[in-house]
Design a protein that fits this description.
Blueprint lengths: L5 E2 L12 H14 L1 H5 L8 H11 L6 E4 L2 H12 L5 E6 L3 H9 L3 E8 L2 E2 L1 H9 L6 E4 L13 H14 L2 E5 L15 H4 L5 E6 L11 E4 L2 H15 L4 H12 L2 H27 L4 E2 L7 E5 L6 H10 L2 E2 L1 E2 L11 E5 L5 H24 L1
Parallel strand pairs: 1-12, 3-4, 3-6, 6-7, 7-8
Antiparallel strand pairs: 2-9, 4-5, 8-9, 10-11, 11-14, 13-14
Helix pairs in contact: 1-10, 4-5, 11-13, 12-13
Length: 368
């Protein structure tokens, strides 16, 4: 990729907000303090000290935690455990494209429900349940949803949990953005409110530490986590002990907490800059600046076809992701913009290029 390309395409932190020196020190500490365990195969449930640290963070028993090679591995294990061909599954609309891919690959029967400014349209879900829908799983990204950036309200969290208990489905609380709220008050996780073993929680250190360490985790009922641990043993014997030990040392040293502060500050600046730039260069677009996370969803209007826009945007030196990737159908006039990897002083130029590409598309259509 050309050095001059500005990419709003990838949900990853830019290198300037990754604590390289802190991670180097944590890796050295891991080798110094536990060389035998991190050099061996380890166990399928993950590096034991990190597993215990995660259990303490969420207030659960250790045997409810499984540490994996990234949260996508955690997703895959859970889908393999619960989703068979034609299994009804509730998803958000829009939702993370890899979630749709994973569920489609397992031939789940997907039922998509729209998002409001306060998250999933739980009333529509309730109506569908009353009408006979019997899902086994509901996949929810509750905080700063990917790609829409919205957060599920506390009232809706409680109502969804009531519905899960009544109708017997599992809520998959997919929450990699939990710790990167930069405005407003944190909401309790559904996991922390669960009294019926209705919730399986997943998160990752990719957004708070660095994606290259590929460490995620699941928290759920002991029996289900035990089943998935057996699947993990048969898949890879054990996940990456060195990466997990590095994250553990990074966390207990206090560096993780400091890193989260740095990430929050940078993301708030970038999100606000993106909102300002969109208002300036694309005043006809509609969007909501999120209070945390990595992403902003923008609707460009019915006269913009994102399939035609993407190659023109690339010619103008800006990369984006089309909305159609995140829905079962529709999304032709929307984009997901990831602001996490774009330094604040480059955001305005990136949106200016996007606006120029949109105008070029409009002129081309008008000339036909």
């Amino acid at each position: 990729m050309s050095a001059d390309v500005i990419s709003f395409a990838r949900g990853a932190p830019s290198l300037d907000i990754v604590d390289i020196e802190g991670l180097k020190a944590a890796a050295v500490a891991a080798f110094d303090k536990d060389p035998a365990r991190i050099a061996g195969y380890g166990t399928s449930v993950g590096y034991p000290p990190l597993r215990k640290w995660i259990a303490d963070k969420h207030g659960v028993a250790v045997d409810q935690v499984l540490v994996t090679n990234g949260s996508m591995q955690a997703d895959a294990f859970l889908f393999d455990a619960l989703v068979e061909p034609d299994t009804p599954v509730i998803v958000e609309r829009p939702t993370y494209d890899r979630t749709l891919l994973g569920l489609r690959n397992r031939r789940g029967d997907l039922h998509a429900f729209g998002l409001d400014s306060d998250g999933l349209d739980v009333a529509a879900v309730e109506k569908a349940l009353e009408g006979g829908l019997r899902p086994k799983l509901a996949h929810i990204i509750p905080n700063f949803q990917n790609p829409a950036g919205v957060t599920l309200s506390l009232e809706k969290r409680k109502r969804l949990m009531e519905l899960a208990a009544r109708y017997g489905f599992t809520i998959f609380e997919d929450d990699p953005y939990l710790d990167i709220r930069f405005r407003g008050d944190n909401l309790p996780t559904m996991l922390s409110m669960d009294t019926n073993e209705s919730v399986v929680f997943a998160s990752s250190f990719s957004k708070t530490v660095a994606p290259g360490l590929r460490t995620g985790y699941l928290v759920g009922p002991t029996k289900l986590i035990g089943k998935i641990a057996s699947m993990a043993t048969n898949t890879y014997i054990a996940p990456n002990m060195l990466a997990q030990a590095t994250i553990y040392q990074y966390a207990v040293s206090g560096s993780l907490e400091a890193s989260i502060v740095t990430v929050r500050q940078a993301l708030e600046e970038r999100a606000d800059a993106l909102g300002t730039a969109l208002t300036k260069h694309l005043p006809q677009s509609t969007f909501t600046v999120p209070d945390g996370g990595y992403f902003l969803w923008v609707d460009l209007g019915p006269d913009v076809d994102v399939h035609k826009l993407l190659p023109v945007a690339a010619e103008h030196g800006v990369q984006v992701v089309k909305g159609t990737d995140f829905v079962l159908e529709g999304g032709e006039h929307s984009l997901r913009l990831a602001y996490s990897a774009v330094p604040t002083d480059r955001v305005d130029e990136g949106v200016r290029r996007l606006a120029a590409a949109i105008e070029a598309c409009r002129l081309f259509v008008a000339s036909l």
